[in-house]
Amino acid sequence: MAMKRNGKAPVSSDSDEKVVFFNDVSLGPHESQLRFRLIHFWEARNPVKKTVIGLEMLLIDEQGTVVQGFIPPGRIKKFLPDMKRGSVYKLINFYGSKNKPVYRVSDHVATVSFTWNSELIPLHDIPIHFAEDRFRFHSHEDFEANCDLRGDLYDVLGHMKLVNGQTLTERPTLDELEIAATRHVLVHVQSHDGHVMKLYLWDQAATEFCQKFKTFENTPTVILVTTVNPKRLGGTLALSSMSSTRVFMDNDVQPTIEYSTWYVLMLGCNPDTANQVIAEVVTKRETLSIADIFSYIKQDSAKDAFFECTATIDDVVHGSAWYYIACSGCHSKATKGPTSMVCTNTKCEKVNTTGVAEYRAKISVYDNSEQAVFVLLGDAGRSLTGKHASELLSSYFEANGDKGAEDEVPVPEALISIIGQTHRFCVKVTDHNFSGNTRAITVTKVLSQDIPPHTEESVGNNNAAASKVTMLTRDEVSDSSKSRGDCANEESKRGYDTADPEKAKRPRCEN
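Below the sequence we write its predicted structure tokens.
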């Protein structure tokens, strides 16, 4: 039997062709033949110039060994027309180059590089079995240990808890225009060991997620994402997709099928527990000062994040609406239509809705490091005042019978009375903060004060407010933002400037 150039004996096939397995591939040139299934391929780009530097591949042979493949940019046009994911090929002549030390997708020491004399030939009806895929899973502890090391890219498997902040109790709404603008989808994934991790799917991976998600008749639960990069964002572990990332759900591949079976057995007779989300576990917030939050926002690597911050309220910002009119179903902005209020969210099923007042109040806060403007939305406002926004609105109209829906409603005493209070806030920073459009920070929850219970009186006031709100004019509601989330961002663009430090009612703090 002839010897290979690198000194190892090839494996002879029935046709006496020189065939080697991936385990026999060493560094240097090879005139032998490889047989493999092309699992996946993707463009490799220069991270600075964004130019294509080659085509990378994931290959598996008949022994189940996986290697990374590479085609230089000048040879892509030659091979790409014949390349199809999942197909089986033989490759004659190649070079075993050293596997790169960063962002590796296989354990093999060598990368199969296509050379000037390489021949790629599709194999049809071949009797040899090739595995469809091969995955490399990491646990939460493994990802934690490899944070920010830029080493091997491993795969994550688990069940989804949140998709862009929405639970799976009802099918999440995926706004493709918004996702295209933000370029990512944020999924909270709980692994087999119980840990919840943030998973950022970027660009093509986000598109693939949306397309695949929408193909399922029932809401998919299990997710497998390949080659993710573990990073620490805002002090919390986050997994970020790469160019090589693929997305699988529910019954797509064997690992998701097996996980789905385990998941159903784990739920037992109580399937409702599948969508219970413990906010403290999911967000895993880090406590920062206001100055630290602003420093994080300025970082180039900053992404959407939640933080806890203890601050004192020194004023309620005047000069802008402290509430907006929301759809009673999805809490997006509602506008006045010909006969009723109309929800502006095209994904909402309640096209004709009842307008409900929701908080969108800006407050000036400070701690020992810095001053900021926080935006209170929904339950965050109620937890401070003990009253729904609709209740306060109803009380104002009842006390001022000569006022109409077109009249400006001043900041209520219930909001003014929170000045001087110190609370622990859960806040969220988003793309609007990173782009420099606003310094105002959205409050998602107030953690240090109990919410007063409902009373019979408050229920009646809510009903009265709802009927009054439906008569608001188009001009008044147009000042509200597009959605519960967007309203904070749009209004807060000028919120920081309107907070006059000279008028602040805060006491001097000693350092």
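The radius of gyration is 29 Å.
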